[in-house]
Amino acid sequence: MSKRKGLLLDQQGTVSAALHDLxxxxxxxxxxxxxxxxxxxxxxxxxxxGLVVFDSARDWxxxxxxxxxxRHPIEWIAILGRGLMRDTQxxxxxARNFHDFHTLPLDRERLLITLGHAHxxxxxxxxxxxxxxxxxxxxxxxxxxxxxxxxxxxxxxVTVDAPVLIGGExxxxxxxxxxxxxxxxxxxxxxxxxxxCGAIPPNLIQSELFGHERGxxxxxxxxxxxxxxxxxxxxxxxxxIGDLPLDLQANLLRFLQERTIVRVGSTERVRVNVRVIAxxxxxxxxxxxxxxxxxxxxxxxxxxHLKVPALRERPGDIPPLADGIFAEHSHQKAPQVKGFxxxxxxxxxxxxxxxxxxxxxxRIQQAMIMSENRLITVADLGLPIGEGAAxxxxxxxxxxxxxxxIIVSNLRKYRNNVSEVAxxxxxxxxxxxxxxxxxxxxx
Length: 443
Ligand SMILES: Nc1ncnc2c1ncn2[C@@H]1O[C@H](COP(=O)(O)OP(=O)(O)OP(=O)(O)O)[C@@H](O)[C@H]1O
Hints:
- The protein contains 19 helices and 18 strands.
- The chain is of the alpha/beta class.
- The strands form six sheets. It has a five-stranded parallel β-sheet with strand order 2-1-3-4-5, sandwiched between helices. The protein has a five-stranded parallel β-sheet with strand order 9-12-15-8-16.
- Helix 18 (418-425) packs across helix 19.
- It is flat and about 90 Å long.
- The chain binds adenosine-5'-triphosphate.
- The site of adenosine-5'-triphosphate has 18 residues, from strand 7, helix 7 and helix 15.
- Residues 140-369 form the Sigma-54 factor interaction domain.
């Protein structure tokens, strides 16, 4: 029988030895003495149950422990030393974060029941959050080699606190990656503030970033906290960093060097603890070479670099992405729509997706609402007709694809008037009805 695996965070090693003596044949525990070691262990396969030993109330740094607990789908059990249950600092921590607790000394029967419950609860939780997780990680969908590489990089990045620069085409998921880094890092409990540098008029960016005092300029009726300050203890996500005007690049650089800001209209320096994650869809190297982006700022931001792959570089991820989008928006679809035709799935994997996952989402959402078919067609998605046919494996498949696209688009054009469509296509009504049936078209 394979053993149930658990994690044991035990600084002194006291419980580790006691567990060994208790002989729990079903269980096997990996004992770790630091949170760093736990983080490293949990970046691989995550066990269902974790035990944290508190020999005293201040054994573990609270924020780091809470961040670790929040990050992993594990049921945690606190093992409390004598008298600690009534500790006013520890009790709320345990109540907030733990599935259950067990007081020392260990009681074999009671511990086995507690472990059994926690194990069962973790299994149910994982089953309920289910399939989406299986074909992706960090809230992202995709198991292609490019995505697996990205997940591996994210795993490393969440354990450090350095600035990150995320490259990738528009709509490819850069913000999603930034959010994943935030929610899986030590800063998970701090804010995530996103700001699109390209969408804010240049004269407002300074105050958006740094804030202003009341009366700092006409229209500044009250003090405003800027985005850097609002992100204190968390993450500031600067999208389209390449659009930041040069003078503000200098100010941002100063903040990154000194970790302090001065609100517009103030002289007071305010210390701020923020991790900056920047994103760009343009080649910043080129912008540096052309003098549009400061080189020193580029190196400051680019301590860690991530590249989010374009959707066309990972066509194998399109079917699970499409299914996920379909499930997510299924409350907003035409009632007869049940899924995607195989031609549509093939066409989606052939298409170049200049707008990446955002474009995929928009096209599928639109097709789910507007389609008059049981299965969404290539035409419903507005993808180039014929791409599916070009990819067909046999001539029959190619013919069927083209026939279907033409019939569907004519039915739409003539509002399902079969006689008119038959006339336009030069076939009898009976033939057209047979084709509609054979090609699985819903009228
Ligand atoms: N791997 C993925 N799995 C699931 N959804 C994704 C994935 N990648 C992107 N998305 C979704 O696609 C949409 C666009 O993603 P996001 O906003 O992160 O892209 P972006 O690269 O930051 O875009 P822009 O360059 O326009 O700022 C979002 O709705 C996001 O949830």
